[in-house]
Amino acid sequence: MNKNSISTFKVAATYIGTIVGAGFATGQEVLQFFARFGFNGLYGLILTTILFIVFGYIIMNLGMQLNANSHLEVIRFSGGKIIGTIIDIIITFFLFGALTAMIAGSGALVEEQFGLSNIIGNLLMAIITALTVLTGISGVINSISFVVPFLLISVLGISAYSIAVTPPDMSVSSTIIENSDLISNWVLSSILYISYNTVLSIAVLGPLGAQAKDKKAIKYGSILGGLGLGIGSIMIYLALFGNITEISKLEVPMIYIAGVISPIIQIIYSIVLIAEVYTTAVGSLFGFTARIVNMQEQKNKARWIVIITTVIAFFASQFGFSNLVKYMYPLVGYGGIVLLICLIYSLYQSKKMS
């Protein structure tokens, strides 16, 4: 292994951390995309686990082969100039949208858990995220990979306890969950879930593959990362179904579940959730900035883009967290399906390169 390469653990942790944000760990994504389909939602989560592994590997492997500085190199290679440009616009838009959603999610957390104004949570998340991204790609990878083990342990632990105390009851109607007209069945839901998460993660995974420099680290990092995401999602799904009547209308359902265990656990999980929101916010802002400007060669310009983008996202976050998950995520998922098709086709192209 190249001594400057990134370990399998860091690859897996960065992959998980890029995707595990406000929507995942609050339970809002699993609620909107899977719990609404009842038992069939479990099949959807198994499918997404497999797809996370496959597409994570494709993106990072391409990033390594193309020595990618941003998602643009991977997209242009996969989709060509015309389709690649369209996908690039979708990705760049969603990176900003995801940053906005993460800032909104932190506000919802602070308001529901601590009774403070959501503006306080929004502002703190915006500032910490911007400061981290200003350190560059190494700072982003280190900060995300450091936080992720605590995130997964907390999600799995609280979900497991909740499942043991209040077992999932699949006989309870999932129709009490407010549906989005954009998602009609569990198969489509799984594809859209993978699609928008790929749109979000490719901005970090492309450059991560280039930084990793080691095919084994990419391969096993994709497997570990995909399994971590899948198992975490399934545990949240089962925990939600043990409390579906109580949590169906909440912005942050997993906070309620943690509170059932004990008030102290609820506070601890709130802090963990804020850390999870932070990891995705950092990945989104980094990816957006890296697409606009070369962060290594134009540091002063990049600094201003980070600051201006964060300020705009802060104001846009006032639209509300659950609304962003319900409407923006599926819409971006539809646009991202083209990206998934292009990435599958790129497997053939990349074999010709090797």
TrEMBL record:
Taxonomically, the superkingdom here is Bacteria
GO MF term list: transmembrane transporter activity
Q: Which GO terms describe its cellular component?
A: membrane
Q: Which UniProt keywords apply?
A: Membrane, Transmembrane, Transmembrane helix
Question: Any transmembrane segments, and where?
Answer: 12-35, 41-62, 82-104, 116-137, 144-166, 186-208, 220-242, 254-281, 302-321, 327-348
InterPro entries recorded for this chain?
Na/solute_symporter (IPR001734), YkvI-like (IPR038728)
Name of the protein in its database record: Transporter
Q: Which organism is it from?
A: Anaerosacchariphilus polymeriproducens
Tell me the lineage of the source organism: Bacteria, Bacillati, Bacillota, Clostridia, Lachnospirales
